[in-house]
Amino acid sequence: MKWPLLRWVPWGLTGALYALTMVAAASERQTLPFIAHAGGGYQNWQYTNTLQALDFNRDYFDAFEIDFEWTSDGHLVCLHDWKTNAEWIFGQRFEAPVSLVEFEALVESHPVAQNCTLTTLVQWLQENPEKRLVTDIKTDNVAGLRQLASAYGEGVGKQVIAQIYQPSEYGAARAAGFETIIWTLYRYPGEEADILRELEGMSLFAVTMPRHLALQGLAKRLPVNVYVHTVNTQREWAMFQALGVSGLYTDWLPDPNVEVGDESG
User: Which of 250, 175, 239, 174 shows the shortest CA–CA distance to 208?
Assistant: First the structure.
């Protein structure tokens, strides 16, 4: 499927221009590609960030969010966290992050879960060029985006969507080569007026918000397409659509824009 390229004219000249932008944005909203949360659900598992989840869900999604954590020696690996998630996947408690070599050994010895490293993830992306990656690097996001861009090489911005947590990260993400950017709000401490002001200086693909902000009606009041996370039932999706949401992060709901078996993108 074709991904919409959403760009907004900078506002702020007059209140009238602001109002016109809000009306135009609301009228142009469309259903965005669903994003498979943590690679998507796999064998009743969630939050796996595994190659198996990516392979299982590639016929049902065009976009995949992956969580990244840092190893003790400064490498990104596909993992939600080193505490509960790592213990659940690998069956042992981690008092601190392990090295990349140790992580690779854990993955190799696991009977089921094959969590990605940057090397294996980039290889998967290159083998599936019609798919898109959405980053979720919760610690040192800018450094992580730069490491990912370096590992991927030329063209990273065509296939990888950078997710930022603070507006201050926007410029660095652009400079690293990312052409498509999502601003996720769950860590942003500002109020609605702050969000609207910050949007004036950014050209975003979308904003992502947690459920409680969407339930407060914020999606309808933003002049940009909006994702919500995480939604796993059709009833909830219909409710959030009525609240102005354009797309969702999900573990289980197949993207209705994707034809099963369609490899054309």
Answer: 250
Whether the CB-CB separation of 212 and 243 falls below 8 Å is answered with no
**Residue 180 Cα distances to 25, 132, 189, angstroms:** 18, 11, 23
> Looking up tokens 């009238």, which residue turns up?
16
Model pLDDT for residues 212-223, shown as the tens digit of each residue: 999 999 999 999
Identify the three-state secondary structure at position 64. Answer: strand
Domain presence at residue 198: yes
CA distance 202 to 133: 20
CA angle 136, 131, 117 (to 5 degrees): 50
Q: Helix or strand or coil: residue 111?
A: coil
- Domain interval for residue 145: 33-250
Structure tokens at 77: 């690996």
Instruction: Say if residue 250's pLDDT is above 70.
Output: yes
Q: What does the alpha-carbon distance between residue 251 and residue 243 come to, in Å, rounded to a whole number?
A: 21
Q: Is residue 15 part of a domain?
A: no
The verdict on residue 135 lying in a domain is yes
Domain count, the chain: 1
Is residue 73 classed as helix, strand or coil in its secondary structure? coil
pTM: 0.88
222: which DSSP letter?
A: S
pLDDT digits (tens, 9 = 90+) for 50-96: 999 999 999 999 999 999 999 999 999 999 999 999 999 999 999 99
Closest C-alpha among 72, 83, 39 to residue 250:
39
Phi-psi region of 20 (alpha: psi -120 to 50; beta: other; left: phi over 0): alpha
Instruction: Give the span between the Cα atoms of 186 and 170, in whole angstroms.
Output: 16
Residue whose structure tokens are 């142009």? 28
